[in-house]
């Protein structure tokens, strides 16, 4: 069977961004440069479903820029054969160190391209076998045809997504896509009482809108908005007046919350301090303590106060950078999965808590 045509690594990298849009699970694994180079080597050796040619991860580490330019059939077939033999010496200017085969295998392939259906794996080999075992799925490989461009490429990508991304994954993609579209103009936020407010365009405003319109009605019985700030207008007079009316003293130069919601449906009102994280600034232990002080000074008890950090998506770099900073006894919420929430539980006694007590 003839070898497939080659698409340059840079073009593969660009196509992967379009095939796997923001919101795709483990998106970084399937869109970064090492993924593009892995796909390139699979094309180079002809590892495509149905050809009985397969890739071994260390072949990606052995490729070089010079070899990648050798695009003739004879050169490609010769390298495919020799790259599977034990190395007899150092490889000058190889793409990656030999031990990079593990992240290629575990992240790029198993947790990335295989999970999305872009790559298939041989099932007739023992897990310890050194034989090559990975190949591009035929319908995915067709998306990398250099002759496929423009509207035709977009159509094929859309069809592939519909066939291989789950309904949940597609929902995440669509939610985040709508957020990206909204960045082009001002963001209109509708409060629970019907009041509206225009916020400046940007990722933080998109998340704030979702907090008010999605999080609040889902997780609060009778929601209200006390405070909503934005980078271009951190203190809104209407919000400051309302906050002061219930005893909250918020200083604009420090401890300024992104949002304060209130739940009036459970007897005593419950305050919900929300930090919106597009890049940085989650509810850390220090931040939680500072916000708790604001509530305590207004004579709200600890049982009347909750803390939430809102992100766009679990796979977003902002969450990955911030997750280790999140305070115990706080929550994390994502606009791409609005019906779910993460609770960071902290045991209140030396005996801790049993897992069965946390299970629904």
Could you explain the architecture of this structure?
The structure is a single chain. The chain is of the alpha+beta class. It has two domains: about 10-165, Orthogonal Bundle (Arc Repressor Mutant, subunit A), CATH 1.10.10; about 185-360, 3-Layer(aba) Sandwich (Trna Endonuclease, Chain: A, domain 1). Helix content is about 40%, strand content about 15%. The chain is built from 15 helices and ten strands. The chain has a six-stranded mixed beta sheet with strand order 5-6-7-8-9-10, sandwiched between helices. Strands 1-2 form a two-stranded antiparallel sheet. Strands 3-4 form a two-stranded antiparallel sheet. Helix 1 (about 10-20) crosses helix 3. It is elongated, with a radius of gyration of 26 Å. The termini are far apart.
Topology:
Elements (H helix, E strand, L loop, with lengths): L8 H11 L7 H5 L1 H13 L11 H6 L2 H4 L4 H10 L18 H13 L5 E3 L12 E3 L1 H4 L8 H15 L2 H16 L4 E4 L5 E4 L3 H17 L3 E6 L8 H9 L13 E5 L6 E7 L8 H13 L7 E7 L5 H6 L7 E5 L7 E3 L10 H4 L2
Parallel strand pairs: 7-8, 8-9
Antiparallel strand pairs: 1-2, 3-4, 5-6, 6-7, 9-10
Helix pairs in contact: 1-3
């Amino acid at each position: 069977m003839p070898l497939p045509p080659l698409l340059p690594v840079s073009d593969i990298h660009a196509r992967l961004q379009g095939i796997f849009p923001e919101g795709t699970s483990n998106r970084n694994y399937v869109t970064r440069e090492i993924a593009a180079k892995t796909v390139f080597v699979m094309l180079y050796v002809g590892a495509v479903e149905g050809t009985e040619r397969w890739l071994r991860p260390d072949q990606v580490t052995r490729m070089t820029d010079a070899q990648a330019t050798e695009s003739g059939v004879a050169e490609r077939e010769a390298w495919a054969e020799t790259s599977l033999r034990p190395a007899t010496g150092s490889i000058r200017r190889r793409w990656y160190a030999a031990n990079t085969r593990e992240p290629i295998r575990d992240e790029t392939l198993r947790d990335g391209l295989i999970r999305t259906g872009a790559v298939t794996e041989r099932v007739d080999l023992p897990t310890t076998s050194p034989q090559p075992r990975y190949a591009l799925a035929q319908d995915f490989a067709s998306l990398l045809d250099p002759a496929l461009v423009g509207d035709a490429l977009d159509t094929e990508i859309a069809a592939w997504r519909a066939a291989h991304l789950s309904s949940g994954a597609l929902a995440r993609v669509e939610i985040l896509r709508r957020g990206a579209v909204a960045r082009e103009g001002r963001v209109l936020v509708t409060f629970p009482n019907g009041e509206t407010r225009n916020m400046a365009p940007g990722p933080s405003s998109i998340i704030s809108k979702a907090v008010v319109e999605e999080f609040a009605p889902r997780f609060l019985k009778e929601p209200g908005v006390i405070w909503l700030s934005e980078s271009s207008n951190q203190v809104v007079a209407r919000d400051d007046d309302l906050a002061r009316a219930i005893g909250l003293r918020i200083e604009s130069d420090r401890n300024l919350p992104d949002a304060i919601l209130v739940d009036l449906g459970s007897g005593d009102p419950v305050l919900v301090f929300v930090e919106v994280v597009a890049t940085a600034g989650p509810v850390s232990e220090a931040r939680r303590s500072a916000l708790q002080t604001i509530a305590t000074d207004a004579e709200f008890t600890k049982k009347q106060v909750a803390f939430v950090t809102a992100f766009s998506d679990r796979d977003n770099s902002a969450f990955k950078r911030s997750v280790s900073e999140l305070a115990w006894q706080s929550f994390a919420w994502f606009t791409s999965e609005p019906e779910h929430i993460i609770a960071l539980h902290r045991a209140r006694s030396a005996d801790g808590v049993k897992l069965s007590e946390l299970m629904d």
